[in-house]
Amino acid sequence: MGMLQDAARFLRTHDDILLIAHVSPDGDTLGSCFALYGALLELGKHAQVVCEDPVPAIYRFLPFSDQLIPPEQASPAEAVVCVDCADLARTGRCELLFRAAKATLNIDHHSTNDHYAEANYVQKAGATGELIFNVINCLKITLNKNIASCLYVAITTDTGNFSYSNTTPDTMRIAADILDTGIDLPYLNRCLFRTVPFPKLKLHALGVTKAKLYDYGRIAISYITLEDIASCGATSEDTEGIIDAIRDIDSVEVAALLRESDDGLVRVSLRGKTSADVSKIATRLGGGGHKLAAGCTMSPPVAEAAEQILGFAIELLHGVSE
Amino acid sequence: MGMLQDAARFLRTHDDILLIAHVSPDGDTLGSCFALYGALLELGKHAQVVCEDPVPAIYRFLPFSDQLIPPEQASPAEAVVCVDCADLARTGRCELLFRAAKATLNIDHHSTNDHYAEANYVQKAGATGELIFNVINCLKITLNKNIASCLYVAITTDTGNFSYSNTTPDTMRIAADILDTGIDLPYLNRCLFRTVPFPKLKLHALGVTKAKLYDYGRIAISYITLEDIASCGATSEDTEGIIDAIRDIDSVEVAALLRESDDGLVRVSLRGKTSADVSKIATRLGGGGHKLAAGCTMSPPVAEAAEQILGFAIELLHGVSE
């Protein structure tokens, strides 16, 4: 556990510390940064949280979220900590602040992390939030409700609310210690998992309504046109999650969602449920991905693209796709 | 902790034990019964799990679920344990087995439990599964994966996957010990929370599509007709959950779902989000419920009933409903 001690010593040593969240910030990088920010305040230190992008609306309930500043507004600090950034590129325009610093620390749970800082606390965990918890614990800082809420959000978002395979017994034990502080669990869950804009909800319903099942219900295909998105008053980002709803149909083994894109192409998301390797479909169309989650880009029209995907999916399920 | 010791002593003393799950069995009563069943087998005891109703389809993946029998098929046993039954009526037709037994034990987490058995291990907890975990622990029975999976299902279903206010630090610590056994967390989560029949998914999409917002988006009302249900190939039970999807719209404070019922009436489900007390609407219409979840029955046609609900909801939000 030398890395944890190193990280704690780093934070104890420096009094003016800049925390960097990664670009397109998620719950883990933000929750981890704000928790560490709150902890450093408890120690009487000066700290800043910096990110290339602003806090997404869904995370604006986070304590300390109003403290986030873009790199251009940051004051130079001699100590910089990258939080949840697997490599330097993930810091975006904040990389300049990192390079200008005299002392650098890297706290991250990604196995691909290349230990780019001087001190590196890089360890496999459900979320970087777990490592921040360990650091705060090691520094003997009292976990108040604000810090605890940030840590909870970091951990629950990166573990799919304790449902992904990265959820370990340690994750649960840390969550127990976090709950000891009396955080408002139902409120945090509502903010994170139960709040949806009406246009997005309508677009999801449309995606489900347009879904068709094939091959005894084992294949589900749906598509979303630019007109669909406009008719719901939604944006193309609101299509996120539709593919999961379709994959969750009990009979489905292979799910595909085709989306018309602003650039005139058709984006295809593919999901498998158990044994079918949907990356094989994606690869045949010049795309790629993992066994159970893959994607590719096709040419319009959508209907023809869907027809082709269906053919490949049938071949895949019937074992003739080589 | 005398009650826990009593429960453990009860189970240690008897060799032929009948476990009773409550009527309309849920994940907690079933997971708790099957976990205890598995544990008693480990001790070399003879055990039976009895329930008035069969195992619902969604819980048939549970280890030992094929062991559940109706009361008529149960062999008389001198020792009976009621699991997750707040009162004797919850045991349904199994009450006869309870009354015929020489020794009775009651293990339950409901605060309304009236201690109807000779020995009663009744304690507040997120789920009865937590109490069963304590008993198994107290009996020093090794938690194998099958027993652990059953306990996990009991706890995660009754705590809304660790999101309701009944989720305590103890809940999380028990979950950590359960995860130590190496249960397949993603699989269990998929079975419980990510598996939906296509007709139900389509009906939910229809419910969302028909939802309308009023009063600056603070009120959402939708309705489901018998024809809607038929058009999706769904059943009236498949309407469950639609009201929650509508309440989750970010701007909504009051949500209502009206459903045509087979008996020719209109069933109304009402949900509040934060401060609006929807039981006031229900009460005015002869129904009742809690502040954030209430319901009532109205006369058709649905459109007129919806109009009336909207009027009451506007009065409620504008503070003129007394």
Short overview:
The structure is a homodimer of 322-residue chains. With 322 residues, chain A is of the alpha/beta class. Chain A has helices at 2-13, 27-42, 95-100, 128-138, 145-158, 169-179, 185-193, 198-209, 226-231, 242-247, 279-284, 302-317, and strands at residues 16-21, 46-50, 68-69, 79-83, 103-108, 119-122, 212-214, 219-224, 254-260, 266-272, 288-289, 293-298.
Features of the shown structure:
homodimer; about 325 residues; alpha/beta; inorganic pyrophosphatase (n-terminal core); Diaminopimelate Epimerase, Chain A, domain 1; 2 domains; 6-stranded parallel beta sheet; 6-stranded mixed beta sheet; about 40% helix
What does this 3D model show about the protein?
The structure is a homodimer of 322-residue chains. Helices cover 39% and strands 18% of the residues of chain A. Chain A has 322 residues and is of the alpha/beta class. In chain A, the strands form 2 sheets. Chain A has a 6-stranded parallel sheet. Chain A has a 6-stranded mixed sheet with strand order 7-8-9-10-12-11, with helices on both faces. In chain A, helix 2 (27-42) runs parallel beside helix 4 (128-138) and helix 4 packs antiparallel against helix 5. The longest helix of chain A has 16 residues, at 27-42. Chain A starts with a helix and ends in a 5-residue tail after the last helix. The mean pLDDT of chain A is 96. The A-B interface holds A 160-165, 167-173, 175-177, 179-180, 185-186, 189, 193-198, 201-202, 204-206, 208-209, 211, 213, 217, 244-245, 248-251, 273 and B 160-165, 167-173, 175-177, 179-180, 185-186, 189-190, 193-198, 201-202, 204-206, 208-209, 211, 213, 217, 244-245, 248-251.
